[in-house]
């Protein structure tokens, strides 16, 4: 009995920590671990119900902890979870597909210091009233169903004036004149990412005017967006180049423009072949770029691309996808001019061969390399990668013999994380 008694009251080093110290530690735990830690003892359960522990709530991590069988639906379970844990100290909430008007109303009234929210609304929940979002948010991630080239209207959300907005991520949203006018109040916006968005009628011109006001913009993504015309797209790029002097990251992928005479016929849109000459002219004033992603760019000759690289020799991250003019000479130019390059992705550029890949062999700063090109063989990859002293990650796809190459690399260079698909 004496031994059993001593074990029960054995000293535990964590007991000497104050409640404030424990709260600070609990705040850094992943959410599933917080839920488990509640079961340790009554003291921990009490501390883990303190609002300061729940500064960020991500329902991608905890959805499997919810038990909708006790509630009418998952939205009711999410609301009950928020009522238990969310409060004054909650700063970030990722709702995924669990948003409802009741949940947004609760966040608006109880989480008054909320700074960021992520909403992923599927087709059955597009009737959520986005007007319930606070005007004081600094980060908004809104992902709506991608409905071809029509875009999803966002209702009164388009009229909100986010004076403190720093980060805006929109997926599948219909870009209207009203939305552009509202965003003009967000002059401090630094990260603007648009995926699968649709620029209706004259909204492209409004957006171009908006961009001219975003002088603090650090990152701009225009990916898989629909534009009314190629001229509309070029106007946007021109304003970006002239006014976004602090732009550091530019991601431009597969713009869609009308293939026929009717700009409103979304079904008749095709991928625009934006001439690299125009992009080259637009990028001259973007003198702070360190991350560039280009997809579907035409007329990219070695001479033009070399001029671009000489203007932006500080680029550290480069992605080229479906740029069919990219060849071995362009890879030579990359290896010669981008001495600080750390991450390079080359996808569906089938004019590149083993010769071009070997130009990268002695690039001492390269740490991440991703290849998906039919013109490259696994043997050439093996030869090149083994000479890259600082490389730590390699992704291979569509490379002939890549599985055997990956197996050999794992034995020769166990320090490299190799992924293939």
Q: What overall geometry do the principal axes of the alpha carbons give?
A: globular
For the biggest sheet, the summary is:
14 strands, parallel
In DSSP terms, counting alpha (H) and pi (I) runs of 4 or more, how many helices?
16
Radius of gyration: 26 Å
Low confidence ranges: 1-7, 261-270
Percent in strands = 15-25%
Q: Would you tell me the overall average pLDDT?
A: 82
Percent of residues in helices? 25-40%
With strands numbered from the N-terminus, the spatial order across the biggest sheet is 1-2-3-4-5-7-9-10-14-16-17-18-19-20
Q: Keywords for this structure?
A:
disordered N terminus; 421 residues; globular; alpha/beta; 19% strand; 14-stranded parallel sheet; two-stranded parallel ribbon; single chain; 20 strands; 16 helices
List the SSEs and their pairings.
Elements: H1 2-8, H2 19-27, H3 31-37, H4 42-48, E1 56-58, H5 59-62, H6 74-85, E2 92-96, H7 101-110, E3 116-120, E4 139-143, E5 167-171, E6 174-175, H8 177-183, E7 191-195, E8 198-199, H9 203-211, E9 219-223, H10 230-243, E10 249-253, E11 256-258, E12 269-271, E13 274-275, H11 276-282, E14 291-295, E15 297-298, H12 302-311, E16 317-321, H13 328-337, E17 343-347, H14 354-358, E18 368-372, H15 378-385, E19 393-396, H16 402-412, E20 417-420
Parallel strand pairs: 1-2, 2-3, 3-4, 4-5, 5-7, 6-8, 7-9, 9-10, 10-14, 13-15, 14-16, 16-17, 17-18, 18-19, 19-20
Antiparallel strand pairs: 11-12
Helix pairs in contact: 6-7, 8-9, 9-10, 12-13, 15-16
């Amino acid at each position: 009995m004496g031994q059993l008694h001593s074990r029960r009251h054995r000293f535990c080093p964590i007991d000497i920590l104050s409640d404030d110290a424990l709260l600070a530690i609990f705040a850094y735990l992943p959410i599933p671990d917080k839920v488990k830690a509640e079961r340790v003892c009554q003291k921990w359960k009490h501390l883990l119900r303190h609002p300061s522990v729940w500064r960020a709530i991500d329902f991608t991590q905890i959805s499997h902890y919810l038990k909708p069988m006790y509630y009418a639906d998952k939205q009711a379970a999410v609301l009950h979870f928020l009522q238990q844990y969310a409060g004054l100290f909650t700063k970030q909430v990722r709702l995924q597909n669990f948003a409802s008007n009741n949940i947004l109303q609760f966040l608006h009234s109880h989480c008054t210091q909320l700074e960021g929210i992520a909403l992923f609304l599927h087709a059955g929940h597009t009737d959520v009233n986005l007007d319930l979002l606070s005007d004081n948010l600094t980060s908004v991630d809104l992902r709506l169903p991608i409905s071809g080239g029509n875009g999803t209207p966002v209702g009164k959300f388009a009229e909100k004036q986010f004076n403190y907005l720093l980060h805006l991520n929109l997926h599948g949203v219909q870009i209207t004149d009203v939305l552009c006018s509202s965003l003009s109040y967000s002059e401090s916006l630094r990260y603007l990412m648009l995926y699968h968005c649709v620029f209706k009628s004259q909204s492209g011109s409004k957006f171009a005017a908006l961009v001219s006001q975003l002088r603090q913009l650090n990152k701009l993504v225009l990916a898989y967006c629909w534009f009314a015309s190629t001229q509309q797209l070029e106007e946007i790029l021109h304003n970006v180049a002239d006014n976004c002097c602090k732009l550091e990251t530019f991601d431009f992928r597969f713009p869609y423009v009308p293939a026929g005479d009717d700009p409103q016929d979304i079904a008749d849109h095709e991928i625009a072949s934006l001439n690299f000459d125009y992009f080259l002219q637009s990028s001259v004033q973007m003198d702070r770029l360190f991350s560039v992603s280009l997809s579907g760019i035409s007329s990219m000759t070695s001479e033009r691309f070399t001029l671009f690289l000489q203007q932006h020799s500080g680029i550290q991250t480069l992605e080229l996808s479906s740029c069919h003019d990219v060849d071995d000479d362009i890879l030579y130019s990359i290896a010669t001019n981008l001495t600080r390059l750390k991450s390079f992705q080359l996808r569906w550029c089938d004019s590149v061969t083993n010769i071009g890949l070997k130009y990268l062999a002695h690039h001492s700063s390269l740490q991440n390399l991703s290849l998906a090109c039919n013109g490259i063989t696994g043997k050439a990859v093996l030869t090149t990668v083994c000479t890259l002293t600082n490389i730590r990650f390699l992704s291979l796809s569509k490379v002939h013999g890549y599985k055997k190459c990956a197996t050999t690399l794992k034995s020769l260079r166990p320090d490299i994380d190799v992924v293939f698909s």
